[in-house]
Design a protein that fits this description.
2 copies of one chain form a homodimer. Chain A has 449 residues and is of the alpha/beta class. Helix content of chain A is 38%, strand content 15%. A 7-stranded mixed sheet of chain A has the order 3-9-8-7-6-4-5. Chains A, B: This is Alliinase C-terminal domain-containing protein.
Chain lengths: 449, 449
């Protein structure tokens, strides 16, 4: 892995070679990406913490990047400056890291949709979820069976515009319709930073954010969110409140072999999954829920009907294609077809965690969570968790780790947004190779607080 | 147009020919449609008024249809019985009528999405609506300019998962954040049947349904919805309340040349459009808003971020392709390329309205709204409105027109759901040729109440 120190120790020749290589790679990338030019810029805004300040700094960083790639004749100093000035935005969890795998698959994973296809609102009128495309449902069940991470027998599948829409649908479906006051929605801190805002932004009379499940002591019914492995800290979780009147929503977005050992098939009342964190296709906005109770599945479907009259069929068809390719790659693992998607993604996460631990352990400024290895039924061996996010702690006197890293032009998400101390930050490990490498370089260059 | 009386007056030979023709056409249709088999069934549930009773009758009608198409050797009597027993569901506004046009375009309107494309959450970080795909935005502006139905200069485009999501986003964006009580949302009756439920289903503390705008007399700020041409009755509308503190949302889903003369480019603060009613691509769930105020555009974007973290890129790319084909067809109108999309769809609506008026005027049981012709800037001639829905009134003693038509196996939506008398029903004119023809046959067979 190439390291770029922040003091200039190179000769002009080294710099020229480096600059040319950088320019050529960037220009090739721009040309290759064609219509995707806006999608793969690694300095972009966060999905939930957008503010004018962040936005303008992102635009500036894009302009710097653009000017640095405008011509092969640029001076090497400008490039190096641009590179060291670049803001590395690892605040969001944009899963662009998997793009490489999909490029390798060539035309096999292309999808063609004809002008007259999928025009109707309806996909399958015999299904409670009448907008669920049967091919997509089939591939969801196939993949769960193959991976062994969730029981699908006796479950209703409800498709959503990402798992966000399904999260809201679940709150609607589980809330009592005629209660005197809204039901409390709780989750143990650190919890996914968007849960409180998503729960409260419409000031619903059906449900309201009830805070940290660790300290929740009220009587009566409540909804508990269980994210496992947890976003942000990667730990495996079970219910924290554990009382009889709890309605549980399991968010298993990261319960896939590349992130955590698959110990058992999840067998919950209501479980959410999302395409974006499995295969990286965040732009398609596809998620699904496995629901045990028929009435809950009906109410969730009703929510999506009132919210958006269904879910894009184009994206469901594409998701079916992509999930099918993942399953095919697992089934053909031992043939000549190359490594499976989960082998590819597991290796990649292993490498990133190894490199990251090396950099962090070199000093005493930061610390990382420790995880216990467990047997993974999918890979048939004992493995360590390797979460999609780094839950980094600033050791020593730094109280606001996010602000400290921002001084070094690394954008992260503060622990405060996850309901805990500002000594913690969440950092995405799913960004491009380029961003990850630059992040490690930047992190290893920090010598003191 | 073939008419099938409800008493058997045919000879066996006639019936055999009819049956064979029906079977062949249905089998060909099934074969041709391939993977689309679930999408184009003309007996399906309504987008907003789904109940178990309707659902089970739909399933039954599907089974009848399936059995009638299973073999060319079926007896003619069974076919005719199946045909006359078939429930014609014209409750919803599923725009499958346009499928024929898109089939005629052949491969030109296919879209190919590669496995690695459009993976990121982000589409254009320099845009307030950061998930808006630039190609799609470009085609939206191009089509509005060509048709002349909306001012796009100085407007922000916000894309949504259908215009339903944008309707909710608009309510969120226009509601005062810190008011003591929710703002009233009003619309003149007859209003779109889903407005009250969509406004109230989450019991929001920000906004609430305030009823018929015709009788709204409260002081203070309010949100008024103006659907023009109106769903259900097809009339051109302006604001009804007309007070200084009104925040207006214009729903112009049907302000396109096939439905109504384009008299002027709409120049409102906040206007909603939807792909489904223009081109028929309801399954893609794409709508857009043209927004004058930057802060409103930001808040609408925030709503969609919290609701579904953006909008399917696959569907935006497809919508760009489809809208581009519509614009191309208008620009090439005088060349050898065949008729434009709006010529095709206008002709089709003209034909259906003509046939319908003939059937209705033959008796005295039903009546239809009357419309004033107006000059259409797009077609450059005086034309009559020809709405997407029929607002049918049962004359005489029938008080519940919906129940009366249901006895004749025609499913419609009752006037009650639009805030007016049950003497009225709304009937979709956008269903398949087969459904429309059967509907006319059934209607013309009703001789007395």
């Amino acid at each position: 892995m190439a390291k770029i120190p922040n003091t200039v120790l190179f000769s002009s020749k080294h710099l020229l070679v480096l600059s040319l290589a950088l320019n050529v790679s960037l220009i090739l990338r721009m040309l290759y990406e064609g219509e995707e030019r806006h999608n793969n810029i690694s300095c972009h805004k966060n999905g939930t913490d957008f503010d004018t300040k962040t936005h303008s700094s992102i635009i500036k960083s894009r302009l710097v990047m653009a000017s640095s790639t405008s011509s092969l004749a640029n001076s090497t100093c400008t490039d190096l400056k641009a590179r060291s000035n670049r803001i590395i935005n690892l605040d969001h969890g944009n899963p662009t890291v998997y793009e490489k795998f999909w490029r390798q698959t060539g035309d096999k994973t292309n999808i063609i949709i004809r002008g007259w296809q999928s025009m109707s609102y309806f996909a399958d009128v015999s299904n409670i979820c009448w907008f669920l495309v049967p091919e997509f449902a089939k591939e969801v069940m196939r993949l769960h069976r193959l991976v062994g991470n969730a029981v699908t027998e006796g479950r209703y599948i409800v498709v959503g515009t990402g798992s966000s829409q399904l999260f809201l649908a679940a709150l609607y479906a589980l809330s009592p319709s005629h209660a005197n006051e809204p039901i409390n929605v709780v989750c143990a801190a650190p919890y996914y930073s968007s849960y409180p805002t998503m729960t409260d932004y419409l000031k619903s009379g059906l449900y309201k954010w009830g805070g940290d499940a660790n300290s929740y002591e009220k009587d009566g019914p409540y909804i508990e969110l269980i994210t496992s492995p947890n976003n942000p800290d990667g730990h495996v979780r079970t219910s924290m409140v554990n009382r009889s009147q709890g309605l549980l929503v399991h968010d298993l977005a990261y319960y896939w072999p590349q992130y955590t050992p698959i110990s058992f098939p999840a067998d919950n009342d209501l479980t959410l999954f999302t395409l974006s964190k499995i295969t990286g296709h965040a732009g398609s906005r596809i998620g699904w829920a496995l629901v045990k109770d028929k009435e809950v599945a009906k109410k969730m479907t009703k929510f999506i009907e009132l919210n958006s009259i269904g879910v894009s069929k184009d994206s469901q068809l594409r998701a079916a294609k992509v999930l099918s390719a993942v399953s095919d790659s697992c089934e053909q693992e031992n043939s000549q077809e190359g490594e499976s998607f989960f082998e590819f993604s597991h290796k990649l996460m292993t490498k990133r965690w190894k490199q990251l631990r090396e950099v962090v352990n070199r000093g005493e400024l930061f610390s990382l969570p420790q995880f216990s290895p467990a047997f993974c039924n999918f890979f048939n061996q004992v493995l360590e968790p390797q979460p999609a996010f780094v839950w980094l702690k600033c050791e020593g006197n730094v109280e606001d780790c996010g602000s400290f890293l921002r001084e070094h032009k690394i954008l992260t998400r503060s622990g405060k947004q996850f309901g805990v101390s500002t000594k913690y930050v969440r950092i995405s490990l799913l960004d491009t190779d380029e961003s990850f490498t630059q992040f490690l370089d930047r992190l290893s260059s920090i010598k003191s607080m």
